[in-house]
Design brief:
Layout: H1 3-14, H2 35-41, E1 45-47, E2 57-60, E3 68-69, E4 74-77, E5 90-98, E6 110-123, E7 128-135, E8 139-140, E9 144-147, E10 170-175, E11 181-182, E12 187-190, E13 203-208, E14 218-228, E15 233-240, E16 244-245, E17 249-253
Antiparallel strand pairs: 1-6, 2-4, 3-8, 4-7, 5-6, 5-9, 6-7, 10-12, 10-17, 11-16, 12-15, 13-14, 13-17, 14-15
């Protein structure tokens, strides 16, 4: 039997005793994870180049064509035992969100959206079936997979009395789904990273320029760095007196 038929047969055998009209995976169990870990796992990142995407979601187990999936659905992955895939393995599912339909670059950076994570449920030589462990959003065909590892949630630095580095201003870029406005608890990306002295847990003050002559910048609130890369960082809003927006200034307290 060719591989492309084997996975449906596996699914049918595993689900033969279930009195349902559609092929469904096992109901997702409770995660038993802190809300901070779940939120950070779903937070966005930025990339200036196309990430490698050899492992992808290619479909599901339905009698009709679907493009989006949720907890309880069976997903098809384009790799199997020949690629080292094993039952029980877990993977993050991510989506590339570029501003324009062209190659990702510094002029066209992409937000990497985490749509959830999955667990491999059945394996063939060339394909696998997976179930959704957690959904940050709908999981779509062509979303790509990365190895699953829960993030370490940093402890916000104690910077009471420390003045922000106003000679080292950065800017808010984008957030999940290329959002440009943020409130308390939201995540956003800034153009400051480890190359600029940022470490996980560092606090930032966020300022808005009202563009009025002879006026101070307005102190909007504070955010903390939860994921740091060389040139960018993902921050979470801790205090918000008004909406944070793309283009607002950020200054690290350090």
């Amino acid at each position: 039997m060719r591989s492309r038929y084997a996975i449906p047969v596996i699914a049918a055998a595993l689900l033969a005793s279930a009195p349902v009209t559609a092929q469904r995976g096992p109901a997702p169990g409770m995660l038993h994870l802190p809300a901070t870990v779940i939120a950070q796992s779903c937070s966005p990142k930025m990339s200036f180049e196309q990430p490698p995407t050899p492992l992808r979601i290619t479909g599901g187990q339905d009698s009709f064509v679907r493009y989006s999936y949720a907890p309880g659905d069976l997903l098809t992955v384009n790799a199997g035992s020949d690629n080292g895939i094993e039952v029980g393995q877990e993977y993050f599912v991510r989506r590339v969100q570029a501003a324009e339909r062209r190659d990702i670059s510094r002029e066209n950076p992409a937000t990497i959206r985490t749509t959830g994570w999955i667990r491999i449920w059945a394996v063939d030589k060339e394909m696998s079936l997976a179930t959704v462990v957690h959904a940050c959003d709908s999981i779509d065909i062509d979303d790509f997979l990365e190895p699953f590892k829960l993030p370490d949630v940093p402890t916000p630095a104690d910077t009471a009395g420390v003045k922000p580095q106003r000679e080292n201003y950065g800017h808010i870029l984008l957030g999940t789904d290329r959002r440009s406005s943020f409130a308390k608890g939201d995540f956003f990306i800034v153009d400051r990273g480890s190359d600029h002295g940022v470490s996980p847990g560092d606090r930032f003050v966020v300022y808005h320029d009202k563009k009025q002559a002879e006026n101070f910048l307005y102190d909007l609130g504070e955010a903390v760095a939860i994921d740091v890369r060389p040139e960018t960082s993902t921050l979470q809003v801790m205090v918000s007196r008004d909406a944070f927006r793309a283009g607002d200034y950020v200054a690290i307290r350090k």
